[in-house]
C-alpha cells in the first residue's frame, strides 16, 4: 500500500498550487482528482465567464495567455489548470474519487472508488464548498409539469425555445443564465436579497485591479471593510445588472416565497406561466465520503484557518478563509501560505513521535 506524507483531495486551483508548494519543499504527496484536472471548471455552463480578468485568474509561475484585461470563460480556466499541472509535472492521479477517509492511529486511510487504498500521514481537502447545488425546499412542492434544473446545467440548449423560464438567484450565475436565455425565452429572474451590483470595469480597468490596489480584497474577515462587503455581498455583473437585464426583456422579481393556486408567489407579485425553473441558489459542501464525524457539522467542514478538529486533517478553499480574495483565484497563494506551515509543523512532530 502506498504511503505519502500528504494526500491532497481535489485538483482545482487550490489543490494544484498546494501540490506545487509541497513539491518545492520536497514533501512526498499525491494529488487526487475524481475526474480530470480542472473538471469543476470544465463542467460549468458553456460560455460562462469569470468576473475576474486573466491577470487575476492565474497562479504564480504561469501566465494566463490572452488579453490580460479580458474575462476568461470556464473552459479556458480548465485548460489553464491542466497546463499548470503539466508545466510543473505535478504528481496528480486523475479518475481517483475518494469514497472514504478514516484515521487509524497516526495514519489516514483513503479508499478510492475502484477499491484501491492509500495511506497518508496528513490530508488536505481542497475540493471547495461549491460542490452540490443547494435546491430550496419549495422545489418539492412544484407540479411535475415544471422542469427543474440547477445552475450546474451544462448548456442553455437544454432549455427549449420560447419557454417561460424562472431563474432563481441574483448572483453571477443566475444573471448570466437569465441574460443568455433572454433572446429566445420569456425570462423572469428572482433576485432575493438586494446585493451590490458594481460594473466589471471602471475607467478601463477590471474592478479587481482597483480593489487590489486599494487593498480591499485583502481586508481580514473581522475588519470594517469585510463587514461592509459581507453586508452588501457585491456581484460584479458586467452587462447583467437589473437595468440591463430589463432592457433585454428579463422581468425582475424579488424573493420567491411559495407556490399556491397554480402560481409562484414572490414578495412583489405572482407568476403563473412557468415551464422551466433554474435554481441558481448557491451550493453546499459534500462530505459524504468523510467518515470522521468530528471534522464536520451540518454546514460542512469545521476548521479554524485550515485546521480541523482532527490532527493532520487540513482544509483550504473556503469563502472568507482569510479575506475577500479567498473565494477568488487571486487569493489562492495567501491561503495556501497559511496552511503549509501548519502542515509542516504537524509532519515534523509526527516524525519525532514515530
Describe this structure in words.
It is a single chain. It contains eight helices and 21 strands. The radius of gyration is 22 Å and the shape is globular. The chain is α/β, with parallel strands linked by helices. A hairpin with a 2-residue loop joins strand 14 (256-260) and strand 15. It has helices at 13-24, 39-42, 74-87, 172-181, 207-213, 224-232, 242-247, 332-353; strands spanning 3-9, 29-32, 92-93, 98-104, 107-112, 117-125, 132-133, 147-150, 164-168, 186-190, 201-202, 205-206, 251-253, 256-260, 263-266, 269-271, 276-279, 283-284, 296-297, 300-301, 313-315.
Could you name the key traits of this structure?
single chain, 354 residues, alpha/beta, seven-stranded mixed sheet, 24% helix
Shape: globular
* Gyration radius, rounded: 22 Å
In what range is the share of β-strand residues? 15-25%
Order of helices and strands, N to C?
EHEHHEEEEEEEHEEEHHHEEEEEEEEEH
Oligomer: single chain
Bin the helical content: 10-25%
Number of DSSP-assigned strands:
21
> First CA to last CA: what distance?
19 Å
**How many alpha or pi helices?**
8
Round the mean pLDDT to the nearest integer and report it. 91
> Biggest β-sheet: count, sense, barrel?
7 strands, mixed
Low-confidence residue ranges? none
The chain-level structural class is: alpha/beta
Amino acid at each position: 500500500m502506498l504511503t505519502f506524507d500528504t494526500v491532497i483531495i481535489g485538483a482545482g486551483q487550490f489543490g494544484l498550487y498546494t501540490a506545487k508548494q509541497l513539491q518545492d519543499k520536497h514533501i512526498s504527496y499525491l494529488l487526487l482528482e475524481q475526474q480530470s484536472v480542472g473538471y469543476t471548471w470544465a463542467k460549468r455552463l458553456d460560455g460562462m465567464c469569470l468576473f475576474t480578468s486573466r491577470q487575476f485568474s492565474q497562479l504564480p509561475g504561469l501566465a494566463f495567455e490572452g488579453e490580460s484585461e479580458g474575462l476568461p470563460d470556464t473552459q479556458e480556466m480548465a485548460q489553464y489548470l491542466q497546463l499548470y499541472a503539466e508545466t510543473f509535472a505535478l504528481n496528480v492521479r486523475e479518475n481517483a474519487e475518494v469514497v472514504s477517509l478514516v484515521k487509524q492511529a497516526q495514519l489516514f486511510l483513503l479508499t478510492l472508488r475502484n477499491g484501491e487504498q492509500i495511506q497518508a500521514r496528513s490530508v488536505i481537502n481542497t475540493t471547495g464548498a461549491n460542490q452540490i447545488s443547494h435546491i430550496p425546499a419549495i422545489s418539492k412542492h412544484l407540479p411535475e409539469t415544471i422542469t427543474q434544473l440547477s445552475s450546474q446545467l451544462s448548456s442553455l440548449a437544454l432549455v427549449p425555445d420560447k419557454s417561460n423560464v424562472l431563474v432563481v438567484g441574483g448572483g453571477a450565475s443566475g444573471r448570466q443564465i437569465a441574460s443568455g436565455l433572454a433572446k429566445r425565452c420569456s425570462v423572469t429572474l428572482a433576485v432575493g436579497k438586494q446585493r451590490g451590483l458594481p460594473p466589471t470595469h471602471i475607467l478601463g480597468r477590471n474592478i479587481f485591479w482597483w480593489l487590489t490596489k486599494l487593498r480591499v480584497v485583502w481586508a481580514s474577515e473581522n475588519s470594517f471593510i469585510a463587514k461592509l462587503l459581507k453586508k452588501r455581498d457585491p456581484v460584479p455583473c458586467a452587462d447583467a445588472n437589473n437595468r440591463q437585464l430589463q432592457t433585454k426583456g428579463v422581468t425582475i422579481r424579488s424573493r420567491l416565497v411559495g407556490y399556491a393556486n397554480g402560481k409562484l408567489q414572490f414578495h412583489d407579485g405572482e407568476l403563473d406561466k412557468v415551464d422551466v425553473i433554474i435554481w441558481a441558489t448557491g451550493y453546499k459542501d459534500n462530505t459524504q465520503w468523510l467518515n470522521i464525524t468530528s471534522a464536520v457539522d451540518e454546514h460542512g467542514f469545521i476548521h479554524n484557518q485550515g485546521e480541523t478538529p482532527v490532527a493532520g486533517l487540513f482544509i483550504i478553499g473556503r469563502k472568507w478563509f482569510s479575506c475577500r480574495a479567498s473565494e477568488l483565484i487571486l487569493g489562492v497563494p495567501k491561503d495556501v501560505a497559511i496552511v503549509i506551515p501548519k502542515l509542516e509543523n504537524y509532519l515534523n512532530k509526527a516524525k519525532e513521535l514515530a
